[in-house]
Amino acid sequence: MTQKTDDKAAKAKARTVRCPQCGGDSVYGPSNPYRPFCSDRCKGIDLGAWASESFRMEAETPPDDQPFGDPRLQ
Ligand SMILES: [Zn+2]
Fold it and tell me: 20 to 30 A Cα–Cα from 11, which one of 2, 44, 68, 73?
């Protein structure tokens, strides 16, 4: 009898949402620190894309501290 109630409570706790990264089931609760993502991998992919994007923009700035073409070096 009590088993039915426990099962219901457990289901309410383990709420699942759709992972924005892979579209799979993701546990939306305290047991999942990566929510709304399903795993650290999906969360890492999202953050990695953002980081590489900003890094790429920064890398496009040409370095101006290189002693390139200095006649005294030759
Ligand atoms: Zn995922």
Answer: 44
- Kindly write down the DSSP assignment for every residue of 3-71, as one continuous string: HHHHHHHHHHHS-EEE-TTT-SEEE-STT-TTTTSSSHHHHHHHHHHHHHHHHHHHHTSPP----TT-G
pTM of the complete model? 0.46
Distance 57 CA to ligand 1 centre (A): 27
> Which protein residues have their CB within 5 A of the ion that is ligand 1?
19, 21-22, 24, 38, 42
